[in-house]
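Running this now, will post back.
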Amino acid sequence: MNNPILEQIDLPIFDHIKAEHIYPAITKIINENNSKIKVIENYNASKIDYAFVDELSQLDYKLSNAWSQIGHLNSVMNSDLYRGEYNKCRELITDYYSNLSQNTKIFYLYKALKESTIFNSLNAIQQKIINDEIKDFKLGGVDLDEDKKTIFKELQSKLAKLSSKFEENVLDETNNFTLNIIDDSQLDGIPEDILESARSLAKENGQKGHTFTLHFPCYVPLLQYAKNRNLRKQMYEAYAKKASEFSDKKFDNTTIIKDILSHRASIAKLLGFDNYAELSIDIKMANNPEEVCSFLRDLSHKAKPYGLKDFEELQEAAKKNGINDLEAWDVAFYSEAIKQEKYSINDQEIKQFFPENKVIEGLFNVIKNLYGIDVVESAASVWHKDVKYYELCQNNKVIGSFYLDLYARKNKRGGAWMDECISKSKFNTNIDYPVAYLTCNFASPIGKNPALFTHDEVITLFHECGHGLHHLLTEISEFNLSGIKGVEWDAVELPSQFMENFCWDWNVIENMTQHVHTKESMPKELFDKLILSKNFQSGMQTLRQVEFALFDMLIHMESNPDNLDVISVLESVRDEIAVVRPPHWNRFPHSFSHIFAGGYAAGYYSYKWAEVLSADVFEEFENNGVLNKEVGSKFRKEILSVGGSRSAKESFIKFKGREPSINALLRHNGLAA
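Update: finished.
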């Protein structure tokens, strides 16, 4: 069988990859890798040199390239057939890496190299790779006795399956829910573009009226604008209860959450940690879980007075409308009403100035101004007709490329993310630059009109592009530390949150806006109102992020989570932190994919931790000109290009000249005295 995954010469051949190609490709690569590992195991430790590190890295490179295509397609073009093959291979890959991380012969070769005279002659990047690998082996259970190694591997395998199932349940519940409304009188206040999409979906499903879904481009505006309080409650309740005991039993994540926490705690204890949070923090910038909790509580203490003020304002607005018991499904609606009253702006008015083509052009201009890089659309094999492919060019040379998949659709995972397609590496042969995926879930174009983005969506796009640039502008050709690999997880959001700042600069906004009908740029007066609204409810928003982060940390600090009631923990965190209190039946944890299906377990605090770094970094641009090429060049050199070749703290100090300070973040968020 011809297999496009194995036949890839440069870029992936996405339009040829089918479910039947997945298992043969992965088994072939794993079998070849295992044969090579057996040869390496027999190398003479007394004569070992750095070449063996490269040999192992190349095996990882080969498997990662194949798996990145498969994992990406599973996220953006999910189907039952594809999902089955993906999960089958995910087990193989989990077993492969578990076995490798517990391979004592390979581990001793690394140790022998570390203890040899050769080690001191290696460069700092090579030394860091060896040190990181030795640590990874220890965290992979290499020092455990054989019985415990078996238990460790079983736990890892079960965790991989549980995380995958958690994500599938959230996706299936989101896809399965629709609310069809025939009576137009219930739809008062909902923007016309949302109604047009809902009419189109109803027609597609052979129904009359309007059909609404839980996908973000539909759900968020409905809660913001629908005047019908009962409709808002229906949608909120469906969203808040998804993948829980209140929904279809086959999609209930309750037991999965318990099992995930239990298995993580067991793994941590096998490795000598008191709890999973300690294990997670061991490879991050923060020193320990207590430091993180202290950071979060300090931030909440600073934000709480502002949050209470925000909430009082909401209650007053609701009371004017005869609502004395403000509920969670009222918050977005009255927030939008206050915003319109205070600043005379709303998302629907703003988005008319952000057509897709102009936003993309503006984003690329920022990249050009900061780094002297041109971003040019090019041709490549893609997985869906809406996907576009772009190349980054400098001095007439392609230095990176990325796929842009902007719109929400059925069978596509929710949210927005950047992922690695191909990493920069000395093993690249036919394509000597890195390649990324940038994925969002915005509303697609309606009819002949272009897609229109809210300002929040523009910020999301810039955020993911920041991650993309971190991957694409690396100068590190050692695969293990190239791009975002090797960067501490609580610093990995620095480049993404840094990019968000440009969405609040007039020089950028003026040139990236064009009214969809009048073709005029956003008026300065409207932009000034947008700026005034920048920190609208920032107290409440900060507390919400702290609430999620503290909940995440506390459930992972439990040394014996078997009897842990996660909802009780969340309620106690809300007692301490929250000003907006969701109803008792809200099951937020059941769709908290970041920590139960992604890489943020005992690490969700990273968003706020890295925001301190990014605000502090952006201060240099504020002081020297927001699109200053010299400062941009320094940021590229000291932060973006170095990947994981040195600690994030060291990179920050190289750029800023001192340790991080929280002051810029507080000022940016309007939380400073």
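The two ends are 67 Å apart (CA to CA). More later if anyone needs it.
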